[in-house]
Amino acid sequence: MGDPKFSRKTYDTPSHPWQGNRIKAEVVVVREFGLKNKTEVWKAETILRNLRKQSRDLQARLRLDDKQAKIEADALLAKCGRLGYLPVGATLNDILTMSNEDILSRRLQTIVYEKGLASTIRQARQMVTHGHIFMNGHRVTVPGYIVSRYEESTIEFNPASPFTDEMHPMRISSEQAAANAALKAKSESDKAAAAAAAARADAAEAGITAEDGVN
């Protein structure tokens, strides 16, 4: 259990501190999601690593007709669906294809920005930490809070916040919100196309054809 005065670390640090490619990739993620530091990247990586480990273990147990594994697999998929990591009807294999962006996109800071309540991802973090955001009728000041699908629809401005005034000079316009949504949709489409192209290239290199999948 450990000493209650000292909470355990919720993330694992990189195995090697100086890896140029990893450091550059982390900087890109920090900027894209407006994170405070790389610790938040490592937290997302740890969550993803644990989910993948559970998926692999459960798939191995399901091959042995373990009834308890079926119950645990359903619970794991329900959790991923509830938190918005995966769509409804996903499988254990879908967990293995998840990325850090799937985890980071469910943070309160990211969703506040995507809902058009902030003009930039950095402003979204500031609004959350300063108490301008309500969720489920309560103020939430943790930018990294993982928002469930149910809670997502309850995110709004704090009734006592000056941002409730539509004429507030820092309030985002509807046009800008629509532009942000279109930009995000295009980015996701480009990523999906790139992933599909990479998968086709890997299959071609391995000599796998469409007919192989049918058989």
Walk me through this protein's architecture.
By secondary structure, the protein is mainly alpha-helical. The chain has 3 domains: 20-99, no CATH class; 108-172, Structural Genomics Hypothetical 15.5 Kd Protein In mrcA-pckA Intergenic Region, Chain A; 173-204. It is 57% helix and 3% strand. It has a 3-stranded antiparallel β-sheet with strand order 2-1-3, with no helix packed on it. A hairpin with a 2-residue loop joins β1 (133-135) and β2 (138-139). It starts with 19 loop residues before the first helix and ends with a helix. 19% of the residues are buried.
What are the key terms here?
Structural Genomics Hypothetical 15.5 Kd Protein In mrcA-pckA Intergenic Region, Chain A; about 220 residues; about 55% helix; three-stranded antiparallel beta sheet; globular; 3 domains; mainly alpha
Q: Please identify the structural class as seen in this structure.
A: mainly alpha
Number of DSSP helices?
Answer: 10
Q: What is the mean predicted local confidence, pLDDT?
A: 85
Evaluate the radius of gyration. 20 Å
Poorly predicted runs are: none
What share of residues is helical? Answer: 55-70%
- How far apart the termini lie comes to 51 Å
Shape: globular
Task: Give me the side-by-side strand order of the main sheet.
Answer: 2-1-3
Taken as a percent bin, the fraction of beta residues is under 5%
Number of extended strands: 3
Layout of strands and helices, then pairs:
Elements: H1 20-33, H2 39-62, H3 67-82, H4 92-96, H5 100-104, H6 108-114, H7 121-129, E1 133-135, E2 138-139, H8 149-152, E3 156-157, H9 174-206, H10 210-214
Antiparallel strand pairs: 1-2, 1-3
Helix pairs in contact: 2-3, 6-7
